[in-house]
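Morning run. Coffee first, then this:
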Amino acid sequence: MSIFAAGSWSASLAAAADLATPVTDPAWTQAVLVVTPDWEASQGTLTAFERDAGGGWRQRGSGHPVMIGRKGCAWGRGLHPDPVGGPRKREGDKRSPAGVFTIGPAFGVPATCATGLEYLALSVDDWCVDVPDSPLYNRIVSTRDVGVAAVAGSTEPMRRDLHLGGDQSYALGFVIGHNCGCEPGAGSCIFAHLTDDPPGPTAGCIAMDEEHLRALLEWLRADAHPRLVLLPAAEAAARASEWGLPPPPRDPHP
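And here it is:
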């Protein structure tokens, strides 16, 4: 999800412009690579990379485990070419989107956050609309601007701690730019966010512990045009050269 409507969220409409940006854009100098063992795996390894002056990718630190959709991953709608073969992401399929996606803005409960991304402090009125036939599908909106009726049926309050019994998943996170064109039913509200306690698979997002998420947010910079790449190991290896991706880790298992 990377299209925002109304109020303070409207500044993030620029994320949609990245739809026209090629995967191999040289301005892309930060990569967050998530590699899973296969399409069905619900866990993967996240590794950060920076592009050096010569155009090559340099790994930053070591990888760490993350959780993805409980049914694995499926091709999403992002910056990558339309692939042949493999499952396709759909609303409610419990799969995380695979491919190459924009990152940002960051969001959370605190008023401020140490990050080079745009940061949006959440309020009780903020929702992400996951109802496919809604004109606000795959958008974050404030009920102060669109009214309570506009989010009827949505299961994605951004302040989950206030609406869903103290759930801290969205206390800190960032937007993953899947389905920026808001195609109905193609999947919505995809974020990187905090893991449950104990950690478990997600409904389609990417989840990690607070230490690693905070470190990642501190490193990410909007002017580096960061991208998130999520792929099964075989796909990551096969497409690395064509798409200009960082090299996948030798062992995709956390």
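Residues 5-20 have pLDDT under 50 and may be disordered. Good start to the day.
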